[in-house]
């Protein structure tokens, strides 16, 4: 029975309960300090992509740690057997086994505490453990639970795939749409964007970089994100360990490519910057989803319009404001919210009054300019008419001169007489 308990303990150390042979302990020395077997193994791994190579080295590190734990537990169990031989007591044997389990538990708890301190978030409070008894059933259950916890934590901390990362990469049209919304800062911060940094000198193709949004900052002057949106904010972006503010007009509207994502991951690893994990991606994806489905209140719409006017330094295009309000009105009617629909309609009526009140002032300002333009155009027309009349007179005089030359030189033919008379009449001379 004692031997069976020892075997069970050793299986639990293997983090999954699979049977292991004593020869597996040689794996501790199978790899060098840098986790490579030999030079050939090093060359093979260095030829692999960075992400794949790091995964293999991580697995080797975990394997080495498991083997070390197994040796430690086996040493403790052997000490227990020697006590059993000396004292001839099952109680002593139980003490040795219990001590081995206690030592294993202590080591795992220390590892758990260390990982919790290094992580940015502690998923759960430290679990309390009861003192191990001589019976191994409860002890095995506790260790298996601990293994499941580590497996779950590792899954949450894995690096996201390209498809998963796409869900938190914002496009320029989204930034433009949410720019003056109340949720803009909290939604965009900690998301990612794809920015244009220039053209490749060889291929002449556009080059983009994936960056994390660290903060929203003020820009030193106003600029246009698009033809209809003026802005005075910028994004503080981080790529690797470098940080810099960029305007939003260079943010891409297209998806992230695998090549760009791989380069981003390699840069983080090379500069020893923490990689994004799947838990972070899922959290930010929920923020973006909330922003996409957020319904603005009337007060928020008014504040957005006011902020746009302040940044632009002039009245915002009325058609844009009207489009926002009409969208709200349509939503209110679809929800059969008559009160909201009435309030939005009042805002639309107010907007119409403001636009109508601006028209007389605009007309007064336009009159002098229009009058000047009309006067200038009239002068141009009259001058062109004078030039045309002068060209016509010159042409007729030339024709008359040719006819007179013909008359002086030879007797005109009878059938030319009507033509001569017509030309003379147009010139107002006698023939």
From TrEMBL:
Compartments, as annotated in UniProt: Nucleus
GO molecular function, one term: DNA binding
Acidic residues bias spans: 22-32, 141-150
Pfam families according to UniProt: Plus-3
Annotated Plus3 domain residues: 159-293
Main location: nucleus
One CC-aspect GO term: Cdc73/Paf1 complex
Keywords linked to the UniProt accession: Nucleus, Transcription, Transcription regulation
Composition bias type Basic and acidic residues, residue spans: 123-134, 380-397
Chain segments carrying region Disordered: 14-35, 80-152, 359-397
Name of the molecule in the record: Rna polymerase-associated protein rtf1 homolog
Source organism of the structure: Lichtheimia corymbifera JMRC:FSU:9682
């Amino acid at each position: 029975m004692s031997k069976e308990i020892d075997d069970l303990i050793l299986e639990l150390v293997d983090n999954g309960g699979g049977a292991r042979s004593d020869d597996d302990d040689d794996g501790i020395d199978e790899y060098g300090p840098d986790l490579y077997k030999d030079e050939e193994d090093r060359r093979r791994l260095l030829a692999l992509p960075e992400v794949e190579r790091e995964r293999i080295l991580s697995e080797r590190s975990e394997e080495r740690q498991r083997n070390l734990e197994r040796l430690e537990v086996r040493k403790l169990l052997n000490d227990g057997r020697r006590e059993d031989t000396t004292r001839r007591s099952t109680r002593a044997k139980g003490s040795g086994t219990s001590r081995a389990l206690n030592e294993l538990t202590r080591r795992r708890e220390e590892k758990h505490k260390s990982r919790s301190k290094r992580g940015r978030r502690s998923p759960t409070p430290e679990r309390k453990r009861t003192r191990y008894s001589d019976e191994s059933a409860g002890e095995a259950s506790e260790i298996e639970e601990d293994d499941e916890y580590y497996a779950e934590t590792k899954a949450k901390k894995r690096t996201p795939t390209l498809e998963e990362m796409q869900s938190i990469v914002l496009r320029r049209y989204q930034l433009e749409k949410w720019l003056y919304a109340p949720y803009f800062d909290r939604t965009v911060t900690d998301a990612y964007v794809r920015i244009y940094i220039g053209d490749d000198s060889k291929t002449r193709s556009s080059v983009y970089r994936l960056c994390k949004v660290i903060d929203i900052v003020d820009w030193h002057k106003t600029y246009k994100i698009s033809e209809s949106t003026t802005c005075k904010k910028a994004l503080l972006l981080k790529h690797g360990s470098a940080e810099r503010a960029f305007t939003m007009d260079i943010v891409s509207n297209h998806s992230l490519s695998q090549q760009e994502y791989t380069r981003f991951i390699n840069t983080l690893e090379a500069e020893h910057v923490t990689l994004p994990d799947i838990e972070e991606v899922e959290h930010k994806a929920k923020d973006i989803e909330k922003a996409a489905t957020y319904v603005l209140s009337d007060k928020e719409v008014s504040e957005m319009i006011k902020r746009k006017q302040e940044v632009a330094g002039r009245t915002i295009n009325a058609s844009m404001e009207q489009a926002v309000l009409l969208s709200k009105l349509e939503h209110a009617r679809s929800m059969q919210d008559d009160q909201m629909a009435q309030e939005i309609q009042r805002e639309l009526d107010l907007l119409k009054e403001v636009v109508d009140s601006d028209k007389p002032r605009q007309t007064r300002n336009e009159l002098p300019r229009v009058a000047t333009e009309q006067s200038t155009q009239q002068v141009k027309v009259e001058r062109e008419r004078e030039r045309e009349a002068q060209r016509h007179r010159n042409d007729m005089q030339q024709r008359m001169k040719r006819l007179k030359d013909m008359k002086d030189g030879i007797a005109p033919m009878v059938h030319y007489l009507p033509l001569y008379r017509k030309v003379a009449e147009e010139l107002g001379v006698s023939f």
